[in-house]
Every structure is written in C-alpha cells, then in structure tokens.
Amino acid sequence: MTGPHIGIHATAWTATVVLGLSGVGVLGAGTARADDPIDSLSARQIADRSSDALRGAHSMHLSTRSTPADGGTPTTLDLIVDRAGNCTGSLGLGGKQGSVRIVKRGDTVWVKPDAQFWKSRDSRVGSALASILAGRYMKGSASDPRLSNLASACDLATFQKVVSDNAKTDKGTLTKGRRTTLAGTPVVPLVRTWHGQKVTMYVAATGKPYPLRIDVTGGSPKADATVAFSAFDKPVPTTTPPPDETVGINAQETRAT
C-alpha cells in the first residue's frame, strides 16, 4: 500500500482570507501623513495601511470559520503561524470529516487526526491506523506528499505574498463605517460590496492598523466566512510532541500494511 495520505486541502483558508483582503486592500489610494488619526483617512487609505501592516507581521494567530454554500457544517482553522513556516493549531474539516491537530517546526510536521477523521476514510486502513496511533501524532517531513497539503497551511510568508499580489483590485464599492468596538478594541469597519457579496474588514483604530476580523457574506455561490487575526508578532510556541507521543509516518505505514 502507499501509506496514509492526509489529503486535506488546508490552503483553502488562504483563499477565504484573500477574498476579503484583495477586495479592500487597495493600494495607491492617495497620500496621508503617517501620524494622521485613522478616522480622518479615506476608506482606501485605511485599507492601504491595514494591508501594509498585515504584510509586515512576522507571526500571528489566525482563526477562520467557513460555512459551505449548502449550509452544511462549517470548516474551521485555528493556527499560530510565522514567516519561517512554523505553526501549531488545528483544523476542523466539517461534517463527519473530523479534525486534525498540527504542529510544524522547520521541515518536520506532526499531525494527529481524531477518531472521526479515520472513521470517515477507508474503513480497513483507517481502523488499522487509528489502532496503531492510539492517540499519538504522526511525524514526517513537511515535503512528504502525504503531508505537504496540510503543512502548507503553516506558510505565513506565502499567504502574505498572495495578499500583496491581490491587493491592487479596485472592484466593487468600498465605504468606511463609523468607529466602533470589536471585543473591546476600537476599530473602523470597511465594507466592500461586489456582485451581491459583502466583505467587512475591521481595522484597529489605535496602534498599528492591523485587520482584526474579516466577515464575508453572500455572493454566488454563497459561502459565508469569518477570519480573525490576533497576537501579531508573538512567537509560535516551540514545544513539539515528545517521542512517546509520536509515531513516524513510514513506521506506522509498514505496520498498517
């Protein structure tokens, strides 16, 4: 057999984030003094600064929730990531697909699918692997084709490049709302509408103008999503699963044959 393939397209969350940022992060929108209060800036100037702030972050905490067009169980992602490709967190695959814990440090990745994940896969192989792992992490190289899709979710540098490359759009209508608060933090909402889709980005009104949350609703096909950003420039925890909680992916592959 070819071994367990964790065929999770974890980079889907990137598309969700970029969907919002590419719509509101418009560059070249006019000049403004660096010390101008954010409330005094235009919607495009605020979006410009927010996009720059996000691209300048060395690490952050990302939390996403995306509801499929059919109204099924949302998929979720909760990761602390940095530019070096390190991360720790989890992905919820929605429905009966289960969830996966992930830790990546350098070129090594540890993944721990839950029981529901294995149950949703091939019954014989899934049951065998679940029994072998017994709640432990699988460990392997991030470049291993069986793990690479999942490991790619940890690449903040690529995510930031995608944001930068897509930040020049001028589609739809962009407006600035009144200052409000988000979880107690002062923010200025920016709203873009385009072909029935509404994207709202809440930009921090004090300190660095980071985007703190993006809400996407409507569109065709309809797919609602929320992306939250926090803990900017705080390092990814360096703790990795200990050997007694780990099984090498090649070793457990042999045992499952």
Please explain how this structure is put together.
- Helix 1 (12-24) runs parallel beside helix 6 (156-165).
- It is globular and about 60 Å long.
- By secondary structure, the protein is an alpha+beta fold.
- Strands 1, 2, 3, 4, 5, 6, 7, 8, 9, 10, 11, 12 and 13 form a 13-stranded mixed beta sheet that branches.
- A hairpin with a 6-residue loop joins strand 3 and strand 4 (99-105).
- It has seven helices and 13 strands.
- It has helices spanning 12-24, 43-56, 115-120, 123-133, 148-151, 156-165, 249-256; strands at 59-67, 75-82, 87-92, 99-105, 108-113, 137-141, 173-176, 180-182, 185-194, 197-204, 211-218, 224-230, 246-248.
Provide the descriptors you would attach to this structure in a database record.
single chain; alpha+beta; 13-stranded mixed β-sheet; disordered C terminus
What's the layout of helices and strands?
Blueprint: H1 12-24, H2 43-56, E1 59-67, E2 75-82, E3 87-92, E4 99-105, E5 108-113, H3 115-120, H4 123-133, E6 137-141, H5 148-151, H6 156-165, E7 173-176, E8 180-182, E9 185-194, E10 197-204, E11 211-218, E12 224-230, E13 246-248, H7 249-256
Parallel strand pairs: 6-13
Antiparallel strand pairs: 1-2, 1-12, 2-3, 3-4, 4-5, 5-6, 7-9, 8-9, 9-10, 10-11, 11-12
Helix pairs in contact: 1-6, 2-6, 4-7
